[in-house]
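Hey,
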Amino acid sequence: MTVHIDEQPERAGSLGTDRHGSSELPMSPPVPEPQPHSTKIKVLVVLLAVVTGITSAFGAYIIGTHVAEGAAEPVIWAAATFVATTTLMIHLSEKTGLIE
C-alpha cells in the first residue's frame, strides 16, 4: 500500500513545480533569516561580565593584602583588575557575537 502526501519534501536536485505543474527552475531551500538577540541575553552577558570582574577584583585584593605592605596597593590592584576583566569579558562577548 502506498500513501501519497501532497506536501512531501522533494529530493535534492529535482526540479520544482509551480501550482500548474510546470517545472521551470530548480527549487532551493529557503534561507533562514538571522534572529536578533533579545535584550535579555545582552543584559545577562553584561551582568556576567560585571560579576566576573567583581570576583577577580576580590581575588586580586586578597592576594594584594598578602603581598603588599600598604593598604592602598591592594585597592588599586582590585580596581585595575575589575576594569580589565570586565572590559575583556565585554570585548570577547562582542567578538563572539553574543552582544552587538
